[in-house]
Design a protein that fits this description.
Elements lengths: L4 E12 L2 E10 L2 E6 L7 E6 L4 E4 L1 E6 L12 H10 L2 E6 L9 H14 L3 E6 L10 H6 L4 E5 L8 H14 L2 E5 L3 H9 L9 H5 L3 H18 L2 E4 L5 H12 L4 E5 L1 H5 L5 H4 L12 H13 L4 E2 L8 H5 L18 H9 L7 H15 L17 E11 L18 E11 L2 E5 L2 E2 L21
Parallel strand pairs: 1-4, 1-5, 6-7, 7-8, 8-9, 9-10, 10-11, 11-12, 12-13
Antiparallel strand pairs: 1-2, 2-3, 5-14, 14-15, 15-16, 16-17
Helix pairs in contact: 4-7, 7-8
The structure holds zinc ion.
């Protein structure tokens, strides 16, 4: 005879909005139907003993280059979603990489790909936005793709007039625009200073100074101040950029931002040692910048964490051995967000476990219109859950990475805090290094209304 619920998780430390409580979760038809102390939980067909470990809502990765139909040798939905699940990420929000994804037809193709190939739930950023495709904004929002991507620099440069147009459209229709902020003029000029120093990987960072981010962030916030609408700044990496966002927030501009695990772990002085695999945009910054990113995350001036997962075959990295300009820009990360936040954040007392849940699950769910279906442990929400051992230590190796990428920038790091088991809509999809479901379990999650105003 069937038990009252499908699955019960018992004996956990549940990280709820109200605090950490001892107990468990009952799951029926993929959603959370009860949260209670163990002696009040119903019987379930499947019982998962959390063994006093932390039970968190699954992470939502709002910026991950997972499945670009023109670059499937870099990453694709199946290995990408395996890596996500192994990192406690239960919803991937794919970001275009090189191919345009800016029409209902292209969106439908990607929904079909994800439905066939992904084991985690997924949704889509639309881009790259330019002077030709902004009329598509209302139609894409109606289809559940309400996040748009634009650049202030190459290779997808749009001028300030076009950015104004884009933000106006978002202001009228909802959704948000994510802008990659580096000032092209500064990049052009500072790269001339490198002369013959391109054999040193750190030159990549020195040729893209903090000023480039500061000026671009200031400019797009200036635009958002005029147009209204929700502006989201991609992968903030400098203290100057954070300061501009802080000023914008305090003056009432609807601006949010995100930070990547690699900017929270590494710094510029390590680039020559690590080599071309340390190249990404924006680049690694100074130790002071890194410290400021942690501080801004704690203060709520950085709203969410994202992976900006954009690995490549190793050969494309090694092209930069003698000239860093030739290397692919981008690193792995989707399997590392939670590990970095636990190891370098919670376990080093830089942030609390509640702050971790806020920046990695709840705030992304709100920004991407998925809250409260996603991003929180509460009755009625999807049972997207990750069980973590906060004290378990591990050494990071490329062998443990489930991504298509066969290398990792985190190679050799000793970290503390490991995701043990990941559930998507009530079903365990990952446990202890193993994937438990077949590709195609993941479902498209259309973004609903904007709830950023309610953000805590
Ligand atoms: Zn990116």
């Amino acid at each position: 005879m069937n038990k009252p619920v499908d699955t019960v998780i018992t004996n956990g430390k549940l990280v709820l909005e109200s605090g950490i409580v001892q107990g468990g979760i009952g799951i029926k038809n993929g959603t959370i139907c009860i949260i209670a102390t163990d002696n009040h939980l119903p019987q379930g067909d499947r019982v998962i003993d959390a063994k006093q470990k932390l039970v968190l809502p699954g992470l939502i990765d709002g910026h991950a280059h997972i499945h670009d139909r023109g670059m499937l040798d870099h990453e694709e939905f199946t290995p990408g979603s395996f890596a996500a699940a192994a990192g406690g990420v239960t919803t991937i929000i794919d970001m275009p990489l090189v191919s345009q994804m800016d029409t209902p037809t292209l969106l439908q193709e990607k929904i079909d790909d994800g439905s066939r190939l992904s084991i985690t739930d997924f949704s889509f950023n639309v881009g790259m936005m330019n002077e030709f495709n902004y009329p598509v904004i209302p139609e894409m929002i109606a289809r559940g793709a309400a996040a748009f991507k634009a650049f202030t620099c190459e290779p997808f440069y749009t001028n300030t007039g076009v950015l104004t147009r884009l933000l106006s459209e978002v202001s009228v229709n909802g959704g948000h625009i994510t802008v990659h902020c580096e000032d092209q003029g500064v990049l052009d000029e500072f790269s001339k200073d490198m002369k013959n120093e391109w054999d040193a990987p750190v030159s990549h960072s020195l040729s893209r100074p903090n000023l480039a981010e500061q000026l671009a962030v200031r400019q797009v916030i200036g635009i958002a101040e005029q147009t209204g609408g929700h502006l989201h700044i991609a992968h903030i990496s400098t203290r100057e950029g954070v300061r501009e966002i802080e000023k914008g927030k305090l003056s009432g501009v609807m601006v949010t931002t995100e930070v990547c695990p690699h900017h929270l772990v590494f710094h510029r002085d390590e680039m020559n040692r690590i080599g071309p695999r340390s190249k990404m945009n924006p680049p690694l910054r100074s130790k002071q910048d890194r410290a400021e990113l942690w501080s801004a995350l704690l203060r709520g001036m950085i709203d969410i964490t994202v992976s900006d997962h954009a690995p490549s075959p190793i050969e494309k990295k090694e092209l930069g051995k003698d000239d860093i300009r030739q290397a692919w820009s981008g690193v792995d990360g989707i399997q590392m967000i939670l590990r970095v936040l636990l190891s370098e954040g919670v376990n080093k007392a830089r942030i609390s476990i509640q702050k971790l849940v806020q920046v990695a699950s709840k705030n992304p769910a709100k920004i991407f219109g998925l809250y409260p279906k996603k991003g929180v442990l509460q009755v009625g929400s999807d049972a997207d859950i990750v069980i973590v051992d906060q004290t378990k230590e591990e050494k990071i190796t490329s062998d443990m990475m489930l991504s298509k990428c066969d290398w990792t920038i985190y190679e050799g790091l000793k970290m503390k805090g490991v995701p043990l088991m990941t559930l998507v809509r009530g079903l365990p999809v990952y446990e202890d290094g193993k994937i438990l479901v077949k590709p195609g379990y993941g479902q498209y999650q259309p973004m609903g209304g904007r709830t950023i105003e309610e953000e805590a």
